[in-house]
Amino acid sequence: MKQRNKIITIVLLLGAIMALFMLYNTGPNLDYVIPRRAIRLATILLVGVSVAYSSLIFQTITNNKILTPAIMGYESVFILFQTVIVFIYGDKTFQVITHQDNFFYAVLLMMAFSFLMYVLIFGKGKQNIYHLLLLGLVLGALFQTFGQFLQIVIDPNEFSVIQGFMFVSFNKINTDLLLIAGATLLGALLFGQRYLKYLDVLALGREHAVNLGLNYHKLVKIYMLLISLLVSVSTALVGPVTFLGILVTNLTYELFQTRRHRYMVWLCSGIACVALLLGQFLVEHIFNFSTTVSIVVNFVGGLYFMYLMLKTRKAL
Questions:
Q1: Is 244 in contact with 297 (CB distance < 8 Å)?
Q2: How many Cβ atoms from other residues are within 10 Å of residue 10's Cβ?
Q3: According to the model, what pLDDT value does residue 12 have?
Q4: Which of 55, 89, 109, 281 would be a feasible disulfide site paired with 245, CB 3.0-4.6 Å?
Q5: pLDDT-derived band of residue 131, with 50, 70 and 90 as boundaries?
Q6: CB neighbours (10 Å) of residue 257?
């Protein structure tokens, strides 16, 4: 199938699944059902674009197709932050801090974490991206362990508040938070648009990018802050979505034999939205909410990750 036909197929498939998601089995109470489905649809689109965009950029600057921003420990930082505020304030957490303030603090903390790691690794200009990944992996494990320790010692009723942040859910979205997240994502996309052309060169590798005149360290810093902002939007809205990034980026690589990022980011975003909408449709109408979309996506993504590992091993 030609590239143009593949793109048209993705667009038509996304439109068809959006229509199916909104209109399937609505019943007589349209005034009640349609607005709530519209909120979930908007949330899925925001999360899909955030995950796909951040994962594609991350794989390009690391030059590795089986990594996602989760390896940097962003999600561990987010869960630790939620655990700490629940540990301090208990079941009165959201009487002291609003959902909007919680979103802003989480975004700022994750961006600060990203900037701190960049300064620690690239501060003297002698290290590379792999030292940054290693430090992120170690700190992520440290934060995850500390968070689990706090979760063990708090009251079980208070732990249920944290559980709401640990598992993906599109059913309890705060509309005020949705507007803030949408504005944040739009700002990030507009900011990142001017730097997309440099990703085509960075995909050639660090040495080639430097030889072609790019300021490698400056671009990596910009992309890391952009990734932390996008991961913050998706994680703060619905929680960690670990395997979705690997699934949709590699499907995009397989379907479209191009490395032009100005097209790849939108194609990858479309595939991510299709995957999330299909997963949420199955959860609502096939499994009757007996499971979550994160379990469906992580199950399919996990199988695909194992396939990629076996495929890479055979190629060596």
A1: yes
A2: 20
A3: 92
A4: 55
A5: confident
A6: 8
Q: What is the pLDDT of residues 118-130, one digit of tens each?
A: 777 666 655 677 7
Instruction: Please write down the long-range contacts of 97-106, taking CB distance under 8 Å and 24 or more positions apart.
Output: 99/174, 99/176, 99/177, 100/176, 100/177, 100/180, 102/236, 103/177, 103/180, 103/181, 103/236, 104/180, 105/81, 106/78, 106/81, 106/82, 106/232, 106/235, 106/236
Long-range pairs for 139-145 at CB < 8 Å and ≥24 separation? Answer: 139/73, 139/76, 139/113, 140/71, 140/72, 140/73, 140/74, 140/75, 140/76, 140/77, 141/73, 141/76, 143/73, 143/76, 143/77, 143/79, 143/80, 144/73, 144/76, 144/79, 144/80
pTM score of the predicted model: 0.85
User: What is the pLDDT of the chain when averaged over all its residues?
Assistant: 81
